[in-house]
Amino acid sequence: MITGKYPSLRLRRNRKNNWSRRLVEENNLTPNDFILPIFLIDGKNKKLPIKTMPDVFRYSLDKLSYVVDNAIKKGLPMIALFPSTDKKKKNEFGTEALNEDNLVCRALQIIKKRYKNKIGIMCDVALDPYTSHGHDGILKNSYVLNDETIEILIKQSLLQAEMGCDVLAPSDMMDGRIGEIRKSLDKNGFEMTQILSYAVKYASSFYGPFRDAVGSKGSLKGNKNNYQMDFRNNDEALREVALDIKEGADMVMVKPGLPYLDIIKLVKENFKIPVMAYQVSGEYSILSNGINKGLIDKNVILESLISFKRAGANAIVSYYADRIDEIIE
Ligand code: PBG
């Protein structure tokens, strides 16, 4: 592969000028590479800060158009809705997930009515925003039940699809859920609703600020180690992805992002399927707090985001998505 050697060969020649660096650049970012998470909250005229996530807010539904207008203006292809559910509406079965008047359902209707197909909408399929114990499914003797939870996830998927969700994103790492959800969607006339499987989701401590944002932090009993993946494993990630593709996933997610670049690359190289990376809340907070404290330069954002592209991600879920024009300029 290497022809010639120093001093006739000098790799720095290509790097000398800005135009030349631009000419040989191998990876770059455009707004098309980003998905913007939006946190929803009950009430009116609310834009509430999140203590652990600088510059990220929870919005009441009457403020949504301001956020979505901006996402469209910036050229983002998709937003992701996350509800911060009132504690009073949570119970051990997460029944609020199936309430057609819940925050996500109302937001879906508002956005679809106003913006039609100008932007895609992705919704998590999982119970954790709605359960009093903070787990992604229903519990029996502290174990999250798999098959019983899938029954509810199917109903949640159908409801969200009916309300206008374009991309359903099962995020709970239950076994077999993609196939069951696909089957029910097809049977009920939603054969074009896409599924983005959180196929490789690690039991991670990088989710802390998110759980703070959706109000599940204080309530989470124990950890999620018996359904989310062990961060010691990589072969298992390939098995997860293989199964979800077989069951009908259109795209897969690797999450968290930066500590798992090897997994993104592994999945991309093995399956040639659209791979999304989730730059999760903890990654966001570390970078933003470091920048705000003057410990690191804000270019760390671009550097981190490009690494996802280098690893092979097609797009990135990022809390920086709404400011991406300032970052990639
Ligand atoms: C819910 C869900 C989580 C995140 C996205 N969807 C948290 C969790 O699994 O506890 C985390 C996102 C982030 O940290 O930014 N299943």
Summarize this, please?
The chain has 329 residues and is an alpha/beta fold. The chain is 36% helix and 18% strand. The chain has one domain (28-327): Aldolase class I (TIM Barrel), CATH 3.20.20.
What does this structure look like?
The chain is of the alpha/beta class. The protein has a single domain, classed as Aldolase class I (TIM Barrel, Alpha-Beta Barrel), CATH 3.20.20. The protein is built from 11 helices and 12 strands. The strands form 2 sheets. An 8-stranded parallel β-barrel has the order 1-4-5-8-9-10-11-12, surrounded by 7 helices. The longest helix is centred in the middle third of the chain and has 17 residues. The radius of gyration is 20 Å and the shape is globular. It starts with 17 loop residues before the first helix and ends with a helix. The mean pLDDT is 96. The protein binds ligand PBG.
Keywords for this entry:
329 residues; alpha/beta; TIM Barrel; 8-stranded parallel β-barrel; two-stranded antiparallel sheet; globular; binds ligand PBG
Rounded mean pLDDT is: 96
User: Can you list the strand order of the major beta sheet?
Assistant: 1-4-5-8-9-10-11-12
Unreliable segments of 5+ consecutive residues: none
Strand content: 15-25%
Compute the number of structural domains.
Answer: 1
Report the top-level CATH class: Alpha Beta
- Note the gap between the termini: 34 Å
What is the molecular shape?
globular
* CATH topology-level name: TIM Barrel
- What would you say the CATH architecture is? Alpha-Beta Barrel
Tell me the number of helical segments per DSSP (H or I, 4 or more residues long). 11
Associated small molecules: ligand PBG
CATH superfamily: Aldolase class I
